[in-house]
Amino acid sequence: MKAKLIAYTGQDSPIHRLTGAAKLVVFAVWSVTAMITYDTRVLLVLLALGLIAFRVSRVRFRDFSFVLALILVFFLMNHVAIFLFSPLEGVRIYGTRHDLLHLVGRWWVTEEQLFYQLNVALKYLAVIPMALLFILTTDPGEFASSLNRVGVSYRIACSVSIAMRYIPDIQRDFQNIRFAAQARGLDISRKEKLVKRVRHMVGILLPLILTSVQRIETVSAAMELRGFGQGPKRTWYSARPLRAADIAAIAFVVLLAAASFWLTFEDGSRFYNPFA
Amino acid sequence: MARKASPVEQVVAIGIGAALFVVLGRFGSIPSGIPDTNIETTYALLALFAVLYGPLAGLLIGLIGHTIKDAISFGPWFSWIIASAVVGLIIGLAARKIDVRDGEFGKKDLIRFNLYQIIANAAAWFVVAPVLDIVIYAEPVNKVFTQGLVAGLSNIVTVAVLGSLLLAAYAKTRTKKGSLTREL
C-alpha cells in the first residue's frame, strides 16, 4: 500500500491565496455547469480555463502525477464500455448518420458516435483540473470554515474537517492491522480461496472498526467536554474575510455559468449539433 | 429501544466513518475472481455505521466519504456519489429497530438488516445511479443499467456476507442490556 493520496501542497500562488469559501463556490458552480451542459464549445472553454488556472497555481507535477494513471484507466474503461454497449448512441442523439468504418455486427464507427464520445470525454475532463486544483490548493483546516460560510451547518462542516484530519491516521491503522494480520498468515490476495479471503478480511476490518468506534467515543467525549454543539453558531480560527480577488473569482464563475447556459440552451437543446 | 448516539457523537461518527469509507474505498477492495468486479468492503462498513449511528449519519458518510474518495482519485462522478448517500440513508432507517449497541443481533435482526440493505442497494444501484447517469451524463441506457446491475448485485452480496459478519462480531463485543443479575 505505497499509494499516496493527493493533498494540500501549501505553496504560494494567486490560487492558493484565494479564500477556501471562494474556491468552494467556484468549484461547485463549475461542476454544476459542466454537469448540465453538453455543448462542445462551452466544454472546450471550461477545459481551457481549467488548464490556465492550473498553470497559474504553479502546483508541481509530482504532487498529482500519480492520480493521472487512475484517471486514464477510468476514462478508457468508460469509453470502451460506452462503445460496446451503444455504438449508435451518437446517431440517436444527433439524428443523422455518417458511417466511417464497419467493425463487426452492429458495431459501426460513425462520426456522430465519435463526436458524442468526444463530448463525454470533455465533460469529464472539464471538471478534473478544477477538482485536483481544489484539493491541492485548499487548506483542509480552512475548508471547514468555508463550508460553514456558504451555509452548511457547522456540525456537518466539522464532520468534513474530522474526515480530512483522520484519513492519514486511519490509513496508517489499516496498514498496521493488515501487516499484523498478514504476519499471522491471513492472506487476502488472489492466491487464497474466495471464502477464506472474505473471512480473513473480517479479521482485518473488525479491529479497524473497533478502534475507530473507540476513537469516536474519545473524540466526541473531548468535544462534548469543551461544549461543542451548545450554540447555534460558532466562529472559526482559520476563517478569512473575502477580499477583492475572491469576489472577482466568484463573479467570474457566475458570469461564466450564465453565459454557458445561454449558449447551451439558445437552440433549445443541451447538445451542440454540428451535423444539422 | 436502542441507545441513541448523542448529536456530538454523530458529528464525529460521520467524520471518522467518512475517513474509513475513503481508506477502505481506496485500499480495501478484494478481488472477487470475476474480472473488474471487486468486493467493495467499504459498503459493508457503510452499512455497519448506518446501523450504529442512524440514517442521517449513513447519508452523510456516503456523501462525504464518496466525494472525498473520488476527488482524491479520478475526479468526482456525481451520480454514484449520490447513490452511495442513498445506500447509507436507507440502511440507516433500520437502525431504530436493531439494537447492536446493546449486544443484540439475533436471527430477526439479521433478516431485518438484510431486507433493508437489499432495498437500499437495489434503489441506489438499479435506479438512482443509472437514472442520474442518463440525466447528468447522457450515457447509453443499456450501459448504465448493466453497470448498475453488476455493482448492485455485488454490493448486495458483499453487505449480506461481510456486513452481517461484522455486525454479529460487533454485537458480541458489547455488553448485553440486563446482563447483570442481582445476587441475593
What is the structure about, briefly put?
The complex is a heterodimer of chains A (276) and B (184). Helices cover 68% and strands 3% of the residues of chain A.
Taken from the alpha-carbon principal axes, the silhouette of chain B is elongated
State the CATH architecture of chain B. Answer: Orthogonal Bundle
N-to-C SSE series of chain B?
HEEHHHHH
Count the helices of chain B. How many? 6
Average of per-residue pLDDT values of chain B: 87
Taken together, the total number of domains of chain B comes to: 1
Strand order of the largest sheet of chain A: 1-2
Classify the beta-strand content of chain A into a percent band. Answer: under 5%
Helical stretch count of chain A? 10
Structural class, judged by helices and strands of chain A? Answer: mainly alpha
CATH class of chain B: Mainly Alpha
Rg value of chain A: 24 Å
Tally of DSSP β-strands of chain A: 2
Can you give the helix content of chain A as a percent range? 55-70%
How far the N terminus sits from the C terminus of chain B, by CA atoms, comes to 28 Å
Oligomer: heterodimer
Walk across the major sheet of chain B and give the strand order: 1-2
Which stretches of chain A are poorly predicted, pLDDT < 50 over at least 5 residues?
Answer: none
Largest interface between protein chains, with number of residues from each side: A-B, 73 and 59 residues
Shape of chain A: flat
Major sheet of chain A:
2 strands, antiparallel
Protein described:
The complex is a heterodimer of chains A (276) and B (184). Chain A is mainly α. Chain A folds into 2 domains: 14-139 and 241-265, no CATH class; 153-225, no CATH class. Chain A has helices spanning 14-17, 20-36, 40-57, 65-85, 89-94, 111-137, 140-149, 154-183, 194-225, 244-265; strands spanning 99-102, 108-110. A two-stranded antiparallel ribbon of chain A has the order 1-2. In chain B, a hairpin with a 6-residue loop joins strand 1 and strand 2. The model of chain B has no long low-confidence stretch (mean pLDDT 87). The longest helix of chain B has 33 residues, at 141-173. Chain B is mainly alpha-helical and 184 residues long. The interface between A and B is large, with 73 and 59 residues.
